[in-house]
Structure formats: C-alpha cells, structure tokens
Amino acid sequence: MTQFHGKTKICYGKYALETLEELPSTSVFVVTDPFMVTSGFAEQVTSHLERRELPHLIFAEVEPDPSLETVMRGTLDFIRSKADLIVALGGGSAIDTAKAITFFAHKAAPDLPRPLLAAIPTTSGTGSEVTAISVITDKKQGMKIPLNDELLIPDVAILDARFTRTVPPQVTAATGMDVLTHAVEAYTSRENNAFTDILAVQAIRYVFSFLLKAYQQMEDMEAREMMLLGSCMAGMAFNNSGLGLTHSMAHALGGQFHIPHGLANAVLLPYAIRFNCFDAGVRYRELARIIGLPHSNVEEGTAGLIEAIRGMNEAMRIPARIRDLNIEEAAFRAALDSMAAHALDDMCTQSNPRRPSLMDIRTLLEQAW
Length: 369
Prior knowledge:
Elements: E1 9-12, E2 28-31, H1 34-38, H2 41-51, E3 56-59, H3 68-81, E4 85-90, H4 92-108, E5 116-121, E6 133-138, E7 143-148, E8 156-159, H5 169-188, H6 194-216, H7 221-241, H8 245-257, H9 261-290, H10 298-315, H11 329-345, H12 358-368
Parallel strand pairs: 1-8, 2-3, 2-4, 4-5, 5-8
Antiparallel strand pairs: 6-7
Helix pairs in contact: 3-4, 5-6, 5-7, 5-9, 6-7, 8-9, 8-11, 9-10, 9-12, 11-12
C-alpha cells in the first residue's frame, strides 16, 4: 500500500502571520536565534502574541548546525516554562532546534501534554516546517544526528516571504540548492509516489524559474515567495518519499567540517546524479524534459540536468568541488573512511535509487574532492 501523509496546516501570503492570534494557547515558548532578536524579526512575532496578552519566553540561543548541548538547554527551559505552544522562528537550524526540543521534552516528561508547534521559516531551503526530520549536531563526535519521528512534524507552518528579504545572496543560493536537492531526490527516491512527484516537480520548476532572480535581486518578492513555497512543497514531498545519497554525504561532510548543509548538497548533487543514472536515468530524463533541456535519450537528459545544476551553481559562485570549500586535503583524506561509513548508515541512503557500498561512497567523495 502506498501512503501520503500531510499533517501541517500551511498558511501563506499576506497576513499569514496573524495566524498566531488564532492558535489555542495560554503560554508560548519562542525558539529563535540572536539575529532574529537584534533585527526586530522576533518582535514582529511577539507583537501578535502581545495582542492576545499571551505570556511568552524567548529562547534565542540557536546557532548554525544546532548542537545537542543547545537542544538540551532549550528542552530544560521549555519544560520549566510550562508553555503549550512552541513557535520556531528562523532558518532550518531554529526550526530543527524547536522540533528537537519538542521531541526530547516528550521523552523527559512523557506525562506533559504535547505542545502545539508552529514554524515560521526565514529561509527558503530546508522545508523543515512540514517534515518529520530534525538534524542536530554532536560536536564531540563530529557528526550530524538526524531524528525522524511523527512527533516532529509541525502543526502549523506560516510562510511569509518578508522574513526572507534580508537573507544574503550566498545564503539564498545555498538554501535554494537545498530545495532543488530535496525535490530531485524525492522525485527519484525508491519511495516516490504520485503525490510526491507532483510536489517535487513543481518545486523544481520554481527553483529553475526563480532562484537566480532571488539571488540577484534581494527585493524581488515574487521570486522570494515562490522559493518559499517551493521549499515547503519539496519538504512535503521528501517527508513522504525520503531522500538519497546526496543528503547522506552532505550530512557526513557537514558534520565533519562544518560545511553549511545547502552548500554541501549543491556541490555533491551532480556527482550523486551521475552515480544514480543507471537506476534513475529515466526519471532524470523526465526532469530534463520538464525544465526544457535536451532529452532525446537517458544519457542526454541526465547529462543536461547535471550541466544545468552546475551552471546554476557557477552563476551563484558555488564551488564545483569539495577542495574549494576551505578544507585541507590531509584532513579530508584522514576523515574519508569515517565520512563514508556515516553516509552509508545515514537513513537517507535507504531510499536512494541505487544501493551504494561503502567503497562506492568513498569513491564518490574522492571524485567530488
């Protein structure tokens, strides 16, 4: 039996933020990062809570690649707050932190009622506002830990493109390529279905139509809104279909060398597509057709898709190789076996269209170097 699950209520467009005034709550725990506070974005959220005279506590300690230690501090603060609504404001790191806090609070205090979880993304990339996945980092072990549980799916996603307006071009580029990777891997996953295909294809159309515009023109709000919607669609797709080897390797590379996740995906995606082409070539050819690339046969379609991705990377100053990510070769070589092992064990590898071996992944990482 094939299933498609969609739990999250999605609110987008003008006045979407007013949804905060309608959610049932007596006390709110806001999870965000320091920039959201200093920039005034957090105040945009709390003003809606204040209109309802809702008491709220702001936990603003989220860092890029949120650490296990940060999540544990946030979990303790949340349990003490006795809040019944968690609002996550920020990029994937803030939303993943809020989701992990919900998860660990339930484990630590299972008798407490599960709080309502609302996510307000400020980047167009992770799709975390609609997924059952949270990625946190064990900095002592140098590895990323993906959590996967239905408890992590937000109840509400509030999509307001105004929050993405100040995102710098390079972050827009990396998060946008994360959207593309989510969509491509969802479309070619072993677990794809008719519903995930529709969402993944539309997300891919949005990326090829609007990402460069969003990167080149920060004030192009149509491009920013379409990328935000595309990110959410890709998230809904892969939440049901799973991902693939690009993500597995990106988790390993990012955990070891602190490379931003979207950037790692952008560099690795062409190599994973080439590796998967025997098993997923027909799907890659179809994607080439959809975005208007030559596709007379599987090889031409796959090659065209790879070149289109590399061309977009180049236009946004994203390197083509791992060696250009400021990683020393000796350190990379020393970590190669460990990264390959982590990628092989990563849950994303299970839905990759081609079953890789440990040596396959090691070779792919070397090729990408």
